[in-house]
Amino acid sequence: MSTNEQLEVLFNQLVAMFHFAALQQMGKLKNPMTDKIERDLQQSKISIDMLEMLHAKTKGNLTPDEERHLSTLLRELRLNYVDEAAKNSPAPQAESPAAPAAGEASPAEPAAADQTP
How many helices (H) and strands (E) does the chain have? Predict the structure, then answer.
């Protein structure tokens, strides 16, 4: 195996390591050590940031296939991260109707007409 081929394999393994770590930390894959789904979005963000740093630092030095592969993985991870982060945020609550001001009828109660017998 040539040096360039060996470096390409090592680079792909490094990228895969952070890719699978981020998926595991998002709860998309089981932790192989505990055989449980675990979520740590803060740690997942760090794994994604590490891949983004590698992408930035290796810009111009990757083969077209490596560039495409890394860009695709980053896009996938970002979309999954946004999806998982949205699950953590509380659902927006419907606003309760404002209470009627004194002397006004509430929306559920029609205003009583001035009826004189």
Answer: 3, 2
Neighbours of 17 (CB within 10 A): 13
Cβ atoms of 26 and 81 closer than 8 Å: yes
Beta bridge partners, 36, equal 31
Q: How many angstroms separate the CA atoms of 82 and 84, rounded?
A: 6
Record the pTM: 0.73
- Dump pLDDT digits (tens) for 55-92: 999 999 999 999 999 999 999 999 999 999 998 776 66
Phi (first) and psi of residue 22, to 5 degrees:
-65, -45
**Residue 37 CA from chain centroid, whole number:** 16
